[in-house]
Amino acid sequence: MRAGSVLIIGSGLLGASLGLRLRLRDIPVYLEDASPLAAALARDLGAGEEPPEDAWEPSLVVVAVPPDVTAQVVSTALDRFPTALVTDVASVKAVVAARLTAHPERARYVGCHPMAGRERSGAIAADADLFEGRPWVICPRPETREEDIVRLRTLALDCGAMPILVEAKAHDRAVALVSHVPQLVSSLLAGTLNDAAATELSLAGQGLRDMTRLAHSDPQLWTAIIACNCAAVAPVLRDVAERTGRLASALEAAAGAARAPGLARAVAAVVAAGGRGVARIPGKHGGAPQRYTEVTVLVPDRPGELGRLFTEVGEIGVNIEDFSLEHSVSQKVGRARLSVAPAAARDLTGALAARQWQAFIEGGEHE
Questions:
Q1: What superfamily in CATH does domain 293-361 come from?
Q2: pTM for the whole thing?
């Protein structure tokens, strides 16, 4: 990617994060956005510069706008820059490609989708490491040139991502399952809390927070995403609804009966199927999931304590594979859950105890 400059159209989370990453590699990056204020914020954060006023031609154009307007912006970029490779990072691919079928320069467009994001949006949430270790999907078509695939592979690698070639419709079916429906289910669950009493919500624990984290996402963006992938989202969502309906029917039957011999089987089947599904999710570095042991450490609710914990775990020489922090109502400590290699868990617990931390192994191993 060191040959030529990059123009990023759209300075939201993905566009600004991409700009930050490429600037770290000394690649010239220019930013455009329909909102002058959004573009100015991204530039102030260091994600790129304002495009030159004189006639110029970038080597690569990356369109980072919502999927409902992606095809239009890509089409305009193909017209503006007659030699540039044009790609996009929208989370839906087939509809974009279909809308560009009649464009005479469509061979210079290759769709991409870095599988990275967060519930916060906008340049203010941008991170140069956002794509680190994440899949970066490239969706070539029959007319795509091999050298353009190589350039986009290089772009992904420059961002620390793992490039993967996937056909557009197959991509859309996959993201419906692993991204779009999880967003909707999280939002549906969080929606049931709107009529809950304050006393009920005061009992909420980390499980509810984990399940509803995605519900903080941008409604306007997700409306555009789902609208562009209806055909793939609908059957997955229907399957979730049918499974939920069958379980609800079993629960209703049990509530009105003196004995409910089928209830335990119905609940166990749902939980067991979920466990098998979780076990299939790839591990931290891809491939088969690895098993970790969870070490729980009580962290005083004071400034600097969490940083001190991380520092001392590093001094002990143990790598933290995953981390979560749980707070309970009226408690003056948080519970930090450190996922570590099983062989290191017992030594870590002992070493932390020697440093006056309250640490213990809880729940055994997990994926």
A1: ACT domain (3.30.70.260)
A2: 0.79
**Cβ-based neighbours of 202, under 8 Å, separated by 6 or more:** 329
Mean pLDDT of the chain: 90
Q: How confident is the model at residue 63 (pLDDT cuts 50, 70, 90)?
A: very high
Are the CB atoms for 313 and 348 separated by under 8 Å? yes
Q: Which residues contact 29 (CB under 8 A, 6 or more apart)?
A: 5, 6, 7, 8, 19, 22, 23, 47, 48, 49
**CATH fourth-level superfamily of 6-166:** NAD(P)-binding Rossmann-like Domain (3.40.50.720)
- In this prediction, residue 364 has a pLDDT band, given cuts at 50, 70 and 90, of very low
Strand partners of residue 299: 334
Token couple for 306: 């969490």
Average pLDDT, integer, range 20-38: 94
- β-bridge pairing 109-114 and 135-139: antiparallel
What homologous superfamily is domain 172-250 in, according to CATH? 6-phosphogluconate dehydrogenase C-terminal like domain (1.10.3660.10)
User: Residue 146 has which token pair?
Assistant: 């091999």
For residue 34, the tally of other CB atoms under 10 A from its CB is 12
SS3 (DSSP) at 361: strand
pLDDT at 205 over 90: no
Angstrom distance (rounded) from CA 282 to CA 133:
12
The CA-CA-CA angle for residues 130, 131, 133, to 5°, reads 120
Tell me the per-residue pLDDT of 281-305, one tens digit each, with 9 for 90 and over.
776 555 555 678 999 999 998 899 9
Two tokens, residue 101: 């079928």
User: Coil, helix or strand for 120?
Assistant: coil
